[in-house]
Amino acid sequence: MPVVSINGLKKRFQDQEVIKGLDFQLTEGKCVALLGANGAGKTTTLKMLSGLMKPDSGTIVFEGAEKGDFRSLIGYLPQYPVFYDWMTGREFLEYTGKLAGLTNKVAKGRAQELLELVGIADAKNRRTGKYSGGMKQRLGIAQAIIHRPKLVMLDEPVSALDPFGRREVLELMEKLKKETTILFSTHILNDAEEVCEEILFLDNGKLVEAGTMSQLKNKHQQAKIDLVFKENTSQYAEEISALYPVTSIKIDGEKASLFVEDIEGAKKLFLTEIASRNLPLIKFEISRTSLEDVFMKVVQK
Questions:
Q1: Residue 182 in 3-state DSSP?
Q2: What is the pTM of this model?
């Protein structure tokens, strides 16, 4: 069942159209990544879905919304959340719970429950101004779900964190997938691949591809052979690729990636050629294209 359906969504700032007719649905119980480079329109899209910004045209329909008011159905964490530094973590969650319509008793109980869920119960009486970046993000996620929304939207939740804080938040998102639908924006492809079931590729305000991780990989992923030689890697890769149908070549420093359709046939021919010429091979690795390769292929169409 779709939690929300988006049709023909557009947004213009002065003479620049930044969102160019988005159409997609978010299904209950899924973790979905809104993936795109900086400036692709991710934050604008989330602001429209959260009601913080009005679209110029198009519709946003939430399942179960009464008279079009969907605020009780969503939770939102902006890219740069702001806290009252003088409040403790517990006080902040109780405060946001009451803002969301919870009674004082329910807000207190829910705040304690979420402090434990996000892993900062030991710091509940510490002022938020003393929290680390990772702790603040976890507190921000807790406030976004305190009223048990059907959809939680997180705008770049890990982009400003150090590796340790990033790992904490990604692990928390794995837990949240069991409770609610998640839509989070990111330009970090590895994060999307790690925690998401579905991907929305946004480029220049347009949705250029969408689907489950397996669907996208089956559609766009290619087999590749990575070669590294002691010297002249680019030259040797070009010569070897002329012997067998290669769809494309990517040179990255001293590594050459040869993309092929028939991996077994290419492997035998390439190894035979390298051995017969006694080329100074350091590395020969067979793999498949990453999510980053898929993204670059999609946006360059």
A1: strand
A2: 0.79
